[in-house]
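Researcher: Go.
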Amino acid sequence: ALASDPRVLLMDEPTAGQTMEESQALARHLRALPRDVTVVVIAHDMDLVFSVADRIVVMHEGRIVASGTGEEIQNDAAVQESYMGVALAKDGG
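Model: Structure:
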């Protein structure tokens, strides 16, 4: 995919079926890409996502529930409720 010098690289579940070592190697390769290459990764491998992404968009049931940095996503109440099973109080408390 990189042989044609792309401006955008789209990857869908690139670490599916890979070992941890293979996933870490892919992350190193992605981080080494020139900054002018936009990489879009669709993945459930959150170790990969958090290690390579500048910006993360989280979708649930076809809707965007959060967008931001890794730290913002990890601390987002809607993400926690949707993906981590954290029940949020409706009254904010």
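Model: The two ends are 48 Å apart (CA to CA).
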